[in-house]
Structures are given as C-alpha cells and as structure tokens.
Amino acid sequence: MENKIIYVHGLSSSGATASAQNIQALLPQYQVVAPDMPLPPQQALQLLTDLVAELQPVLVVGTSMGAMFTQQLHGQTKILINPAFHVSQLMRKNLGTQPFFNPRKDGVMTFDITPQLCDAYEIMEKHQFDKVTVYDQEHTYGFFGTHDEMVNCQEEFSRYYPHKVLFEGEHRLNPEVIERDLVPLIQSILMNS
To answer: Which InterPro entries does this UniProt record tie to the protein (predicted)?
Structure first.
C-alpha cells in the first residue's frame, strides 16, 4: 500500500495548489492527497477527520488556515506551515466575495466571507487546543517563515508544541522553500517516526 501524505491548503486556495504538486514531484514514493476544503469550518474539519480515518496517512501537512485544521487532527504526525490559528481575524478584514487562487474541482471561482462565517471560525478557534495530547506534542512540527507578514502564531504554537523550525521565506510557500527546507524536514520526520 502506497504511503500517503495529506496536504491541507489555506484560505483562497484549493487542492490544485502548486505547493502540493511540488511536494508530490519531490517525494514520488508518497501519494500526496490534497482535497478542496469546504469553507464552513466544521465541514472542513469533518472532511479531514474522515479522510485521515480512510487513508491512514503517514503525515498531514497544513498551511495557514489549513494548519489550523491540521492542528486539530489528534494522533497524527503533522507539520503546521505558518499556521493561522485566528484566521477569523484575517477574514473579518476581507468581508465579501473573494476569488480562489487555484481552480477547484467543483468549478467554483469565488467564495463569500460573511460575518456569520467569521463567527463560526472564531468559535472553533477558541477551542482548537482543548484536546492536545502528549502524542500530539511529540509529533507536531511548526514551520515558520522568517518574513511572514500575514500571520505570526509562533508564540502561541510554542505554548503547546516544542518542535519549531524556521525557514527563510514568507507566508506563502515557493518552490525553492519547498525543495530546500520543507521536503528535507518531511524526510527527516518520516525517517524517525
């Protein structure tokens, strides 16, 4: 059975993100599964929970908003890339119709950020660390760009998790960071797990 890595995209993105494709190209021995995430937070977390149960991945990698969801997948080895633990705050500054950066399987090109959606995220955010286990603490890695000007949740991450890695880069990953920093981290984690 092929080992699987689940990649969880951020807000405004999709499973067709170049980051997932780049990871797949650099780690051909793994199957990278990158779903389109539903916008309602409870639906998104349920989709991921079900996918993890079905695929039994060796690793879950989440970026930004996707890292907030990934953090809540207990009992998994995971990497949180520039996690946006309070994505509702970013969303409240961008109410209205927004474009998706990447094509989605359902063909939808835009999404609506409403106050109600922000409220739903805020409720989840308040309880996202409630069930952190010792296993989670030992198997969760933070991956933080030193020039991330969009979010900075390093201090909050460090309250719960000891494994923090910094990389020279911004909020969004680029192919160089993926090849130089992220893939070696993935390989090191999987070799030692």
So the answer is: AB_hydrolase_fold, UPF0227/Esterase_YqiA
Task: Please list, residue by residue across 138-157, b when 16 or more beta carbons sit within 10 angstroms of its beta carbon and e when fewer do.
Answer: ebbbbbbbeebeebebeeeb
> Measuring CA to CA, how many Å separate 69 from each of 28, 41, 87, 107?
25, 8, 11, 23
Report mean pLDDT in 10-residue bins for the chain, 193 residues. 89 91 96 96 97 97 97 97 95 93 89 95 96 96 94 95 95 94 95 80
User: Do you know the residue count of the chain?
Assistant: 193
Architecture of domain 4-191: 3-Layer(aba) Sandwich (3.40)
pTM (two decimals): 0.95
